[in-house]
Amino acid sequence: MNWFKRKRIFLDYASATPVLPEVLKTMENYWSREFYNPNAIYAEGETVKKEMKKCRHAIASILGVNVDEVIFTSGGTEANVLAVRGVRPGKIIFEEESHPSVSEAIVENKSKEVVLVSSVTTDNKLGRQIRKERKKNPPTGGPLLHVDASQTAQYFDVSLERLSCDMLTLDSAKLYGPKGIGALVVRRGVKLNLPPRGTLPAPLIVGFTKALEIAVRDRESEFKRLDKLADDFAKEIQSNLPNVEVNKISPNIVNVSVPGILPEFLVLKLDSGGVMVSAGPACNANKPEPRDMPVRFSLGRFTTLSDLKRATAILIKLIKS
């Protein structure tokens, strides 16, 4: 894509993705021409309302849920907060890799009963384990399972049945869709205490839906392409820098830890060298990173072999110096 070819190398797709031209095209009509409030009862408003219903149907179909189980949010962070704050009072367990919005939304509770387990895994072993726990605890039903699939929906089947989960977080900004829109998908029968919802942002929802459809369409081919690029990238770094710790944690993410070098310092030096990466979630960028936090290289739809060769050469030269 000519519009994304730059001298600088972007390897921070886990924090943000550009909006695809196909997505932009679907949104155009709803900025100025079909700008009407979907809650209005006049004909133009009803037309937009019908389009919002179509979007819900499309997302629900992809995830294998009913239409009323899709709750639109302002993004992945709000979806995570709604999931955590919406459950009944009790103990909440979350994975270390979870987004900061999960831990920060937890309200301290002295109860020992686990009411929610929040995960980022795409392996449904945890889901099956939760189901077994429910059978052991018929009165309470056991804890609910929430999966934040913001980073993984691009490369894995994240339908609720596949993950055996009760709630799912999606973020358009990680799917090459517009920022400011996402969804919390809630399995029917799960009761959440949620605040009132505002007027639906039609352009964002249309773009989000299209981005998700494209992600599903290209999921298999992009998984294979990026998985191979990430493998080669990790091996090249390790072979040239044996003292550096390199971990490939997903098809498109490679974590690099350099003994004796602070992650923030390495990120800034790479930036000056023309490579854009991050250390931890972008939402946490204003907080000091732990000394052992790895630098995250995240590949995406427009990452090329040439990009990675250049980035590898810059990283090797930087660390050896």
Which key phrases capture this entry?
11 strands, alpha/beta, Aspartate Aminotransferase, domain 2, 2 domains, Aspartate Aminotransferase, domain 1, 321 residues, 3-stranded antiparallel beta sheet, 6-stranded mixed beta sheet
What does this structure look like?
The mean pLDDT is 91. The protein is 40% helix and 15% strand. The strands form three sheets. A six-stranded mixed sheet has the order 2-7-6-5-4-3, sandwiched between helices. A three-stranded antiparallel sheet has the order 8-9-11. The relative contact order is 0.16. It is built from nine helices and eleven strands. It has two domains: 2-17 and 219-320, Alpha-Beta Complex (Aspartate Aminotransferase, domain 1); 21-216, Aspartate Aminotransferase, domain 2, CATH 3.40.640.10. The chain is α/β, with parallel strands linked by helices. Strand 3, helix 4 (100-105) and strand 4 form a beta-alpha-beta unit.
Give the biggest sheet.
6 strands, mixed
As a percent range, the share of helical residues equals 25-40%
- CATH superfamily assignment of the largest domain? Type I PLP-dependent aspartate aminotransferase-like (Major domain)
Discrete helix count: 9
- How far apart the termini lie comes to 34 Å
Number of domains: 2
Strand content: 5-15%
Return the CATH architecture of the largest domain: 3-Layer(aba) Sandwich
If you consult CATH, what is the topology of the largest domain? Aspartate Aminotransferase, domain 2
What is the overall shape? globular
pLDDT < 50 stretches: none
Strand order of the largest sheet: 2-7-6-5-4-3
What is the H-and-E element order? EHHEHEHEHEHEEHEEHEEH
